[in-house]
Each structure stands twice: as C-alpha cells, then as structure tokens.
Write a structure and sequence with these properties.
Number of domains: 2
Oligomer: single chain
Strand order of the largest sheet: 1-2-5-4-3-6
CATH topology of the largest domain: Elongation Factor Tu (Ef-tu), domain 3
Strand content: 35-45%
Structural class: alpha/beta
Number of helices: 5
CATH superfamily of the largest domain: Translation factors
Shape: globular
Radius of gyration: 17 Å
Helix content: 10-25%
CATH architecture of the largest domain: Beta Barrel
Number of strands: 11
Distance between the termini: 33 Å
Largest sheet: 6 strands, antiparallel, barrel
Length: 199
C-alpha cells in the first residue's frame, strides 16, 4: 500500500544511516524479509524512480514505525540523508516475499554483508519465537561497514565477523569462515543477505 509517512528519526550508524518512518499501515502488515520503496527527491525532482530498502525493524505497538538502513552514495540516498524529523515521505510497502520460517526447531545461520545485514535482525527475532537457535556471520570491507555486530553478539548463540582489511574479526571475506561456522554451529538452515553490488 502507498502511504505518506513521517520521518521520526534519522541517525548515523557508522558508515550508514538508519531512518525510522511512522507508517502504521506498513508496520502492521510487515513480515521479516519484506522491503519498502521510497520516492526520493521531493515533489519537483527529476528523479522518477523509487528506491528500494530492506526493512530492519518494525514496531507496530509504538505508533507503527518502520526502520531501514542505507548508505548515502547516490543522489537519491544523499537526499534521504539530508531529511529531518517530521519531514514527509511517500512510501510503498510491504513488498516482496518474506523469509520462509522452518516448520521445526532448527539451527539457523544468518549471514550478512555490510548494510545488507539489516533485515536479518527482524528475522532473528521471529526465529527465536519459534524456538530456533540463531548464529550470525557478518562481514564488510572494514569495521565501520559491518552492520549489527554488537547486536549479533548480544542476541545470537554465536557471532563471527570478518572484514576485508582485518579491522574487526578475521581478515578476509565472510565466505572464508562459512565452513567452520556451519560445522561448529551444526547449522541446518542458512539465510543470507547482502547489497547487490558487494562481491
């Protein structure tokens, strides 16, 4: 559904921005893994295309808020990063298929790269409600580009981190740790999320 949401907060999270939008109709229908699209640039903009953002968190019981994480690197996301609380946004959502949830209690590994990790935390909460164990494997180019490492360490059964420059966790890509983490955690189900331009 298309809604006119209001910016509640916009904060920096290391290399990224996290925006909380008041959008109760979207929050009420959201399932982990779904996304929203935002019209960027304002009413007079030449930027016609919407931008898609994975949803990091929703709070239907706190006024109906939706939070998403993004990197300000193009004209649309730079415009978003310049907004202030109480600014209005045109949002559509929730869109896409939610993450499938195992029928039986399972050992689940959540693998995330950079800000692409953001939708995995809503999924983790849902998995824990179902009695599943949750392990994390997170990565990025550098420590400031790993999203959610502290939350993963607090809430996961285990949390492994890898960075390309070695500034946090092991040096190298997250895939280098994958086999070891799967073996140690006795992983049965793997969920993965990363920005499309991260190799």
């Amino acid at each position: 559904m298309q809604v006119r949401g209001t910016v509640l907060t916009l904060r920096r999270v290391d290399a990224y921005h996290a925006m909380t939008l008041v959008a109760p109709a979207i929050a009420a229908k959201f399932r982990p893994g779904q996304f929203i699209t935002i019209a960027v640039g304002g009413p007079e903009t030449p930027m016609l295309g919407r931008r898609a953002f994975a949803v990091h968190d929703v709070r239907p019981d706190h006024g109906g808020t939706v939070e998403f994480v993004f990197e300000a690197r193009g004209p649309g996301t730079r415009w978003l990063a310049g907004l202030r609380p109480r600014d209005a946004l045109d949002a559509v959502g929730p869109l896409g298929r939610p993450f499938p949830i195992p029928r039986d209690t399972s050992s689940c590994l959540l693998l995330g790269v950079e800000y692409g990790s953001s939708p995995l935390f809503a999924l983790a909460a849902r998995l824990r409600e179902r009695g599943c164990s949750v392990d994390y494997l997170l990565g990025g180019q550098s420590a400031d580009r790993v999203f959610g490492a502290l939350t993963a360490r607090r809430n996961g059964r285990s949390a492994a981190v890898a960075t390309a420059d070695g500034s946090l966790g092991a040096r190298g890509p997250v895939t280098a740790l994958l086999e070891q983490v799967i073996r140690e955690a006795r992983t049965q189900v793997i969920y993965a999320s990363a920005p499309v331009d991260v190799t």
